[in-house]
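Q: Structure tokens for this one, please.
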Amino acid sequence: MPVSNITALEARRATLHAKPKVPAGWRHDSGADLHLMLFPHSALSDFIGHRAGKWHWGTLIFRIKTALWAARSYLPHEVEVCDTLTAAVNYLNISKELAQETHVWRLTRVGEQVVGDGLHYADQLQTVCTRLQLSEATKRCVRAHANNIEDLGMAREQAARWLRKK
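A: Here is the predicted structure, written as tokens:
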């Protein structure tokens, strides 16, 4: 028995308007979402406890740079978020420079506060952005890191603006 055009059209319309199997707010599952937030906070607590190493620094810088890419791309009107994330990147870069000289990975007290604020914003961005947006921000961050693209002039200007506000 042939299906009428109306029934086929209704079936197509139902599949087009069906809810996706994985909502855009989820990454993989709630556990993965939580782990994505916990590892950087654990790395920051190791910095605060003076137990940090290069792995901890890499975790923090990647998380904050990815959040910075997402903030610049999808929330450019949120100047405070971009300024805080840029300042956090700068403090982490200062920490790396000092670690190359002293072989000790540390942050200043102000650096710990700024990086903590940056992680807070990164967590908030993770809940606001879709999986596609986060994926694109991550890819852009990886490409920029691979090509050593740094916009230092803009980053220093934003960090100075952030410090003037505090």
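A few notes: The helical segments are 5-16, 30-48, 54-74, 79-102, 109-128, 131-146, 152-165. The CA atoms of residues 146 and 159 lie 23 Å apart.
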